[in-house]
């Protein structure tokens, strides 16, 4: 745990949030500034700065978390037809909180968001 890391404080329940998912190594909770309805964050329980610090052995558990979160989101909102996973590494790429996390963005037809890499 990093003393001043907001995500470490959330994982350790020092800052209350509504957890929507939890497994041995990851938690998910709503983003404080959602970019789209249902936007949530998947956060590693251990403090890793970015994806380069995370052991490859956690990859399967992360993918399992993503699948479970999609299933939970679809159960609560049948209009969800897909999702984006966005992860920023290092400040130049847009990482603001220096604790590994992924943005889970539920997508609906004609939701007005355009995340296209060309």
Written description of the protein model:
This protein is α+β, with helices and mostly antiparallel strands and 118 residues long. It has one domain: HIT-like (HIT family, subunit A). It contains two helices and five strands; from the N terminus they run αβββαββ. Strands 1-2-3-5-4 form a five-stranded antiparallel β-sheet, covered by helices on one side. Strand 1 and strand 2 form a beta hairpin. It is globular. The mean pLDDT is 94.
Chain-wise SSE layout:
Blueprint (H helix, E strand, L loop, with lengths): L5 H6 L9 E2 L3 E5 L9 E5 L14 H18 L5 E5 L14 E7 L11
Antiparallel strand pairs: 1-2, 2-3, 3-5, 4-5
Features:
20% helix; alpha+beta; 2 helices; 118 residues; globular; 5-stranded antiparallel beta sheet; HIT family, subunit A
Estimated helix fraction: 10-25%
CATH homology-level superfamily: HIT-like
The tally of beta strands, per DSSP, is: 5
H/E element order: HEEEHEE
Q: What is the CATH architecture assignment? A: 2-Layer Sandwich
Strand order of the largest sheet: 1-2-3-5-4
- Tell me the fraction of residues in β-strands, as a range: 15-25%
The Cα radius of gyration reads: 14 Å
Instruction: Tally the structural domains.
Output: 1
Global shape: globular
Mind telling me the CATH class? Answer: Alpha Beta
State the helix count.
Answer: 2
The class by helix and strand makeup works out as alpha+beta
């Amino acid at each position: 745990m990093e003393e001043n890391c907001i995500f470490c404080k959330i994982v350790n329940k020092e800052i209350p949030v509504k957890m929507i998912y939890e497994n041995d190594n990851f938690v998910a909770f709503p983003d404080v500034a959602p970019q789209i309805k249902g936007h949530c964050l998947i956060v590693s329980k251990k403090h890793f700065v970015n994806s380069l610090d995370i052991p490859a052995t956690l990859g399967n558990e992360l993918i399992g978390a993503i699948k479970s979160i999609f299933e939970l989101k679809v159960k609560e909102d049948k209009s969800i037809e897909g999702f984006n996973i966005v992860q920023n590494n290092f400040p130049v790429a847009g990482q603001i909180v220096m604790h590994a996390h992924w943005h889970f963005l539920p997508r609906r037809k004609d939701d007005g968001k355009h995340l296209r890499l060309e």
